[in-house]
Design goal:
This protein has 290 residues and is an all-alpha fold. Helix content is 82%, strand content 0%. It is built from six helices and no strands. α1 packs across α2 and α5 runs antiparallel to α6.
């Protein structure tokens, strides 16, 4: 074992003997780790004992000083006013104790006015400073309460807006789903109509129907008829501008009759083809729509 370890172990043994006194020292495993731990604990304990001893010595010294000062004051009272502490009434003793308690509370070095007045002034200043800090803290607390109230109100409004938004989204989603279903229905219906039109056209073609009676031809004729009607509008207006003039009855009558015959011929042709198509087209087989 090293010399340093032996010295530590010797000091530890002496410290344990002082600590436990007549009690037996507990057994412990002697190794470098336990010795280091016990040595560190011993040093801490000895340091604390020294500090406590210094505090005790200081307290003893202050006690002696206070006793000396008490004796001095008692002698001073006896010499100056022939008054001793034992001769004081209960009220005087109470006042004296209150004076001593006040001096201790204010932490003055004595009970003279020169010590009390600065201590009271310092205490008053501390009181004013504390009250000022309390007022500032109350203002901050009031401001925080207002902010907290505003935040809670805002949170409530946001929750209401969120609820309304969710309800609106649910309604819009339902509408979108309905529109999607309607679009699907219309798309399927359109496909069914296309199939039925195609089947009808195939049946018409197989029956030897004139191609001019097809749906597309009729639509084209209808468009031409509409275009001719639109073309007659400016002609009628132009004709109205000539009504105030001296007319040539025979010429005007001829032109009007020609226009009427042309218009009636187109309408008759359109009507006859529609009637022929209605009579010649058999009922197409309907495809089941899903």
């Amino acid at each position: 074992m090293e010399a340093g370890m032996e010295e530590k172990l010797r000091r530890i043994t002496l410290w344990l003997k002082r600590t436990f006194g007549d009690q037996p020292i507990p057994q412990y495993e002697v190794n470098s780790r336990t010795v280091d731990i016990l040595y560190e604990l011993m040093e801490c304990n000895e340091t604390r004992d020294r500090d406590v001893s210094l505090v005790i010595d200081d307290m003893k010294q202050k006690t002696a000083e206070y006793e000396s000062e008490v004796n001095y004051l008692q002698d001073l009272l006896m010499e100056s006013v022939n008054l001793s502490f034992n001769s004081l009434s209960s009220a005087g003793t109470s006042y004296l104790n209150a004076l001593v308690d006040s001096a201790m509370a204010l932490e003055t070095k004595d009970t003279s006015l020169a010590s009390f007045i600065p201590a009271i002034n310092d205490l008053t200043s501390d009181l004013y400073a504390t009250e000022s800090r309390n007022r500032e803290m109350e203002l901050e607390l009031t401001s925080l309460r207002k902010k907290l109230t505003a935040a809670l109100v805002l949170e409530k409004h946001l929750q209401e807006d969120l609820k309304k938004t969710e309800e609106h989204l649910a309604m819009e989603k339902a509408k979108a789903d309905s529109r999607t279903q309607n679009m699907k229905f219309l798309k399927d219906k359109s496909e069914d109509f296309k199939f039925r039109i195609k089947a009808a056209e195939e049946q018409l073609s197989a029956s030897g129907m004139d191609p001019s009676l097809t749906h597309q031809s009729l639509v084209s004729l209808s468009e031409k008829l509409t275009e001719l009607k639109q073309q007659t509008v400016p002609l009628k207006k132009k004709l109205e501008s000539y009504l105030d003039l001296t007319p040539n009855p025979s010429l005007a009558r001829v032109k009007i009759e020609e226009a009427k015959r042309e218009l009636n011929a187109l309408e008759a042709e359109f009507s006859s083809k529609v009637d022929m198509m209605a009579l010649s087209v058999p009922e197409p087989s309907k495809r089941r729509f899903t």
